[in-house]
Amino acid sequence: MFIDLPLDELRRYRPSVPEPPGFDAFWQRTLTETRTHDLDARFTATDAGLALLDTYDVEFAGFGGHPIRGWFLAPRGAAGPLPCVVQYLGYGGGRAHPHDWLLWPCAGLPTLVMDARGQSGPNRPGDTPDPVGAAHPGVPGKMTQGLLDPETYYYRRLFTDAVRAVEAAGVHPVVDPARIVVSGRSQGGACALAVAGLVPEVAGALIDVPFLTDVRRALEITKEEPYGELVRYFAGERLHIDRALATLDHVDGLNFAVRAQAPALFDTSLHDPITPPSTGFAAYHHYAGPKEQRVWRFNGHEGGGGHQRAEQLRFVRELFG
């Protein structure tokens, strides 16, 4: 069943932006502090059994100088500078294996896949620990880790890692740093949206069913994971709700959308109970740069699947001619 507003109302849905005081200063200071650490981007060639690709095990310094892992794949022997797609991961999984990321290098574009610190899963194992301990008790998962203070919140670290991934991709000799597109689905879509708002030099953004947008509404209409982690936390920590919501405002995609200028392609599904469609429409409507949206009427959190990938190939091809 449809779990949100009717489509005609979704096309008009434009909620207020929950911008906290000092939002720009908070993120400027975060990135400035992070950049005091040498990026130290390392690309170690590895044999992944992919005869037509050059494959590298990547490591660079993310938030706090912490080492972040990833993969870098490019067409074998490609001569740069070429456009590059930086990819971010959905919740609860890691960078997995090089052969899981063939779309963009098969289309002729190198790609950097950023591991998500502290996350792993049975089908998408990760390799990057999160050395920052919990600042206060929370429920299992990342959603409540450090939630009572923007300084300690998990997504401050993850979004900063995502910015540094763009910087790492840009130093590889085959990549044109002026033609980098960020891409992700769900949590990865949240990362792509955040980077589009934080890095004016980004050339494009592919934002699929983005998580962590219009968060206050999402918490009112869904208990699906991972928003369910917040719902369970609030059920017990009744006196900390307003403080926690103020932290979430610092990572809400709406605040990044109004600052983003790169051309973007959005993916929204009307049957999505995990990132309710109204939250995706809110991000799309507030996105300040040139934008397109594909709406999938009878799909859930999987979004447009292969059809959306085809749209993304078209979008990037047109973006770079």
TrEMBL record:
The record's section on InterPro entries has: AB_hydrolase_fold, AXE1_dom, CE7
- Region of interest (Disordered), residue spans: 117-143
In terms of superkingdom, the source organism counts as Bacteria
Q: Domain Acetyl xylan esterase: where? A: 2-318
Listed name of the protein: Acetylxylan esterase
